[in-house]
From TrEMBL:
GO cellular component, one term: cytoskeleton
Protein name (Swiss-Prot/TrEMBL): L-fuculose-phosphate aldolase
Matches recorded under InterPro entries: Aldolase-II_Adducin_sf, Aldolase_II/adducin_N, Aldolase_II/adducin_N_sf
SUPFAM superfamilies named in the record: AraD/HMP-PK domain-like
Domain of life according to the entry: Eukaryota
The organism of origin for this protein: Lichtheimia corymbifera JMRC:FSU:9682
Signal peptide segment: none
GO molecular function: actin filament binding
Gene3D superfamilies named among the record's database cross-references: Class II aldolase/adducin N-terminal domain
Amino acid sequence: MIAFFSHSEEGVRQPIKQQREPGKYAIFLRSKRKVVLTGTETEEEARAAENEPISIPQLPTFHDVHEQRVHMKQKLAAGFRIMAQLGYDEGVAGHLTCRDPEYEDLFWVNPFGKYFGHIKASDLILVDHEGKIVRGNTTVNKAAFMIHGAIHQARPDVICAVHTHSMYGKTFSTLGRELLPISQDACAFYKSHSIYPDFGGVVYTPEEGQRLVEALGSHNKAMILQNHGLLTTGKTVDEAVWWFISMDRCCESQLIAEAASPNGYKDLKVVDHEVALGVHKNIGDSQAGYMQFQPMYAKIVKEQPDLLE
């Protein structure tokens, strides 16, 4: 449970904010209880099992920049495959990018016109902040460069950025409102996303790219582009892709909730401000986003191992 409730002397339910410290998770460690599973193990095997270290998932480390680059490109290719499975692709629209670990002014992006569900790590194109191709023999989406290039240049903390025209994201964007903290999942975006209200058509100019950067701000991880769709960022590819998936689902959830309420969003029961902030600390940071992506990554690699090529 993220929050529990007690009763004050006046009988009013008060939230008990039981939250982890940032970077720490609600996981269980080894029990001190001594047991032997009869018929399964000997006494000696039982004691050995009790002394085995507990594996706690961590961010990966790399021996060199080449290993890191391969890893990041494979994660990006997996992101495209997952996006395709979820129906987030739409013709030639949509783009995922990640900053190169060696040359931080360069980033990898999908080749223009290639179906998300067919992209391999080797298909990715390396471009600079001016949109010029450094590696690869396929052109790239100009809008991808204008949006992502501006973000990568202005936000050195952003390693990956994701933008596609997902159904619920672009539908929710027409409301011109931020997501409400109506669920635990929605709290992951509480006070960490913004609105870009000035849709001016396909993003083809550096000026609009700069306006997008200003709307995103210096700390937000996501943005709702009014009449356009969603954009998410992360310190890892994993995090950015997960935030996009989760944000689109939160858009879907709120659209359904508003449709089911006689007075729309005015009837929705939102999470208390302090509780929402606490939940955000639990499930809205970079490590949480990274961890949420791992089951999806393992699944797609098992199903479509060619993406690693």
